[in-house]
Design a protein that fits this description.
about 35% strand, alpha+beta, about 240 residues
Amino acid sequence: MYKEKYTSLPPLRSTLILITAIAAVIMLLVSGHASAWVHYDSHLEISSDARFIVASFTVSQGFCLFSREDNQPLWSYETLMGCMSISDNGDYIAAGASNALYLFSNQDNQPLWSYSEYIAYVGISSDGTYIVASTFFNVLTFSKENNTPLWSIFLVFEPPVAISAGGDYVVARGIKDRNEELILLNRETGTPLWIYNRGRVPDTPIREVSYFPWFWCILLVVLMSIGVQLLIWQRRRRF
C-alpha cells in the first residue's frame, strides 16, 4: 500500500499534464489540417488563345492539361503543384512543386526536364523559351533547352517573380539584408536594372503559418518530456 501511494503523481498534477498533452495533440491536428489547405491549394492557368487550360487539384494531388474543346484531360501528372505558368500559345507549361521545377510540353505528361529544388513561384515567357522561378532563398532563370540555371540571385523568403512576355526582363520581390526590395533584372545577365527599397522588415517572424504545425510538434514533445521527467522525479523523491 505504501508503494502504491507514493509511486504515482498527485491526482491534480497528473490531470493537468494529461489535459495539456491532449490539448497539444488537438492543436497539432487542427493546425496541420489548416496548413494543408494553405499550402496545397489548387491553381489554374489558361493560354492567351484559350486553347489550353492547366489545373492542379488537391483531391488527387496532381495536375491536368485540358483543351477548350473537351472536359476530359489531355493528360495528367500525379504530383501536386503549388505554382504553374503556361506560355501564350499553350505549348509549354512550367510547374513548381515542393521538391522540383518541371517543364512540360502540351504533347504528353513526360517532363522535358526537372530541377530538384523547392519552388515557390514560377513564370514563363510568352513563347516558352525562358522560365523564371524562386526557391526559399533564390531567384533563378532557365532556358527551355535544359535544367541548368542561366543565373541565380540571393533573395529570401520565397520571393514572388514574373517574367516579361518577350523574356527580356525579370522582376522579383523579396528580403535582402532585412530590407524588402523590388528588383528589375536583365534576364540575359541577371544584372539589376534598378532596385526599389521599401524599408526594413519588422523583427516578427516571416510567414508564421508555414511553421505553425512544427511549433505544435515541438511543444507536444516538450510537454511529454516534462511529464515523463515529473513521473521519474516524483518516484525518486518518495524513495
